[in-house]
């Protein structure tokens, strides 16, 4: 009888210990999360990785909602969305609703100074026409070479409506008096860049806006295939004034000059989350704080997507492969997140 009682006590103790361990290993158990995701697919990789991390912490993470930037920032401040991994700052500052930081905050750095942006032109034609800046597209022979639709303007593969870069490009067209010389094509970006790449391979001129991380600068390599060009002078939008020093970059590979006046703010890529959500979920907050990716890893994955591996199943596999290659680092992030919840 005594043995039976002792055995029952041991079993009960083991059950309690096991239960406590399970709770500590999965501090998010029982909590549902609603993430959002940017409309540009070059940011899908980090969303998948963060989702997998949160799921290992026990959270049930719903399918992300693909949202335009302004809609996301309003939604996360209202608490309708918990977080996303696609904040670009200070680039997105102009799209934040009033009193945004009362309700939401930036957490950690996915890639610090990872958001490089600017205009690129096919190197062959940079050399042929002596192109150094956007001002060169006011020259008739340059406009004619880059005019795809015979409207008398050079065609620029630009940004779709709703993207922050669309507003900056529109600002450039205005302040540099380029509206009669350059036509920003605002089709879906992936389709536009696919057409630009095909034209480049046929020996035709290429003129496009892009950013890093992105597959574009792997397929069209700065310095070899294309060149970063200048804006005529730094003339920031009002909301860019505080970061105007981050619009000129030195040591950039494939620049027509050194430094290059990009005309876009070099941004930090960051997770943005609702404050109430973070306060209730210290494990998730700690994971956000620690999560970071090398720019080259994102661009490598973006290239795989561009080559056809772009289904959600493919993206999830890319995330699993990255975790396997970086298991020690990954486990360290999860352990620190679990410790933060105790």
Can you describe this structure?
- With 342 residues, this protein is α/β, with parallel strands linked by helices.
- The protein folds into 2 domains: 30-113 and 268-340, Periplasmic binding protein-like II (D-Maltodextrin-Binding Protein, domain 2, 3-Layer(aba) Sandwich); 115-266, Glycine betaine-binding periplasmic protein, domain 2 (D-Maltodextrin-Binding Protein, domain 2, 3-Layer(aba) Sandwich), CATH 3.40.190.100.
- It is 43% helix and 19% strand.
- The protein is built from 14 helices and 13 strands.
- The strands form 5 sheets. Strands 5, 6, 9, 10 and 13 form a 5-stranded antiparallel sheet that branches. Strands 1-3 form a two-stranded parallel sheet. The protein has a two-stranded parallel sheet with strand order 2-4.
- Strand 7, helix 7 and strand 8 form a beta-alpha-beta unit.
Structural features:
two-stranded parallel sheet; 342 residues; alpha/beta; D-Maltodextrin-Binding Protein, domain 2; elongated
CATH topology (fold) name of the largest domain = D-Maltodextrin-Binding Protein, domain 2
Q: Could you give the count of β-strands?
A: 13
**Elements, N to C (H/E):** HEEHEEHEHEHHEHEHEHEEEEHHHHH
Q: Report the sheet-strand fraction.
A: 15-25%
List low-confidence stretches. 10-22
The total count of helices amounts to 14
Q: What value does the average pLDDT take?
A: 92
CATH homology superfamily name of the largest domain = Periplasmic binding protein-like II
Q: How would a textbook summarize the main sheet?
A: 5 strands, antiparallel
CATH architecture of the largest domain: 3-Layer(aba) Sandwich
Counting helices, strands and paired strands, the structural category is: alpha/beta
- Shape call: elongated
Helix content: 40-55%
Determine Rg (CA atoms, Å).
Answer: 24 Å
CATH class of the largest domain, anyone? Alpha Beta
Q: In angstroms, what separates the terminal alpha carbons?
A: 39 Å
What is the number of domains?
A: 2
């Amino acid at each position: 009888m005594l043995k039976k009682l002792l055995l029952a006590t041991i079993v009960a103790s083991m059950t309690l210990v096991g239960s406590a361990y399970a709770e500590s290993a999965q501090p998010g158990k029982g909590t549902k999360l609603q993430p959002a995701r940017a409309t540009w697919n070059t940011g899908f990789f980090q969303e998948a990785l963060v989702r997998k991390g949160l799921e290992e912490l026990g959270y049930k993470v719903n399918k992300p909602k693909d949202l335009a930037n302004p809609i996301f920032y309003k939604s996360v401040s209202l608490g309708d969305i918990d977080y996303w991994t696609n904040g670009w700052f200070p680039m997105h500052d102009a799209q934040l609703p009033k009193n945004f930081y009362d309700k939401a905050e930036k957490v950690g750095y996915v890639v610090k100074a990872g958001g490089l942006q600017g205009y690129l032109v096919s190197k062959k034609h940079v050399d042929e026409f002596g192109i150094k800046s956007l001002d060169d597209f006011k020259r008739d022979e340059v406009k004619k070479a880059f005019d795809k639709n015979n409207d008398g303007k050079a065609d620029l593969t630009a940004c779709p409506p709703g993207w922050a870069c669309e507003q900056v490009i529109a600002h450039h067209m205005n302040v540099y008096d380029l509206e009669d010389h350059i036509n920003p094509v605002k089709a879906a970006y992936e389709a536009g860049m696919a057409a630009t790449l095909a034209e480049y391979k046929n020996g035709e001129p290429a003129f496009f806006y892009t950013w890093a991380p992105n597959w574009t600068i792997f397929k069209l390599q700065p310095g070899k295939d294309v060149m970063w060009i200048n804006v005529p002078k730094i003339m920031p939008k009002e909301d860019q004034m505080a970061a105007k020093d981050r619009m000129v970059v030195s040591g950039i590979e494939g620049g027509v000059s050194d430094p290059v006046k990009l005309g876009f703010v070099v941004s930090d890529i960051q997770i943005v989350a609702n404050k109430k959500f973070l306060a209730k979920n210290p494990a998730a907050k700690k994971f956000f704080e620690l999560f970071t990716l090398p720019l080259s890893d994102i661009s490598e994955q973006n290239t795989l997507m561009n080559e056809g591996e772009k289904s959600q199943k493919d993206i999830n596999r890319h995330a699993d492969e990255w975790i396997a290659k970086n298991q020690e680092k990954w486990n360290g992030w999860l352990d620190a997140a679990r410790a933060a919840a105790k």
